């Protein structure tokens, strides 16, 4: 199975239809609105703006497991992201990324690897659905290594 077969809902509640991202490069990021790393939303939006026409999809996945830094409702999260960072990339429902309640999306992403460290951990998923790279929370979305990992897959 790949992330494209996972059932997850959009932030507004309907099915996210992950299969529509098949043959795209997907940057999956667990996000939070009240975190010291929250300004990374701006860099994520810049990536989405820069590479969307070449097949990149940035997918934000809200999570409240780290110090309760994403406590809002779906409407509050959406409003926060649009008003403060102009986010246009897709956001999913709020999920758990670690522990026994880990969402199937994160079971696919993490596999046998270590748990998610904190908000804004990043997974670069290739067009085949395989995780190509993983970056820690402190990695800025405009980091050269992250961009190189994305561009490498976009060139295929």
UniProtKB/TrEMBL annotation:
CDD domains: GSH_Peroxidase
Keywords on record: Oxidoreductase, Peroxidase
Active site: 35
A GO MF label: peroxidase activity
Top-rank taxon: Bacteria
Iron keyword on record: no
UniProt record similarity statement: Belongs to the glutathione peroxidase family.
Name listed for the protein in its UniProt record: Glutathione peroxidase
């Amino acid at each position: 199975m790949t992330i494209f077969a996972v059932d997850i809902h959009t932030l507004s509640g309907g099915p996210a239809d992950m299969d529509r991202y098949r043959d795209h490069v997907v940057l999956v990021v667990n996000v939070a609105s009240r975190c010291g790393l929250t300004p990374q939303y701006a860099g994520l939006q810049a990536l989405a703006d820069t590479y969307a026409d070449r097949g990149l999809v940035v997918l934000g996945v809200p999570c409240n497991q780290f110090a309760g830094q994403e406590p809002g409702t779906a409407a509050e999260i959406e409003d926060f992201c649009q008003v403060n960072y102009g986010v246009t990339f897709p956001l999913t429902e709020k999920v758990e990324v670690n522990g026994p309640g880990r969402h199937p999306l994160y079971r696919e992403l993490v596999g046998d690897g270590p748990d998610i460290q904190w908000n804004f951990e990043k997974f670069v998923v290739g067009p085949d659905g395989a995780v190509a790279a993983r970056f820690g929370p402190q990695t800025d979305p405009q980091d050269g290594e992250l961009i190189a990992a994305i561009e490498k897959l976009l060139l295929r």
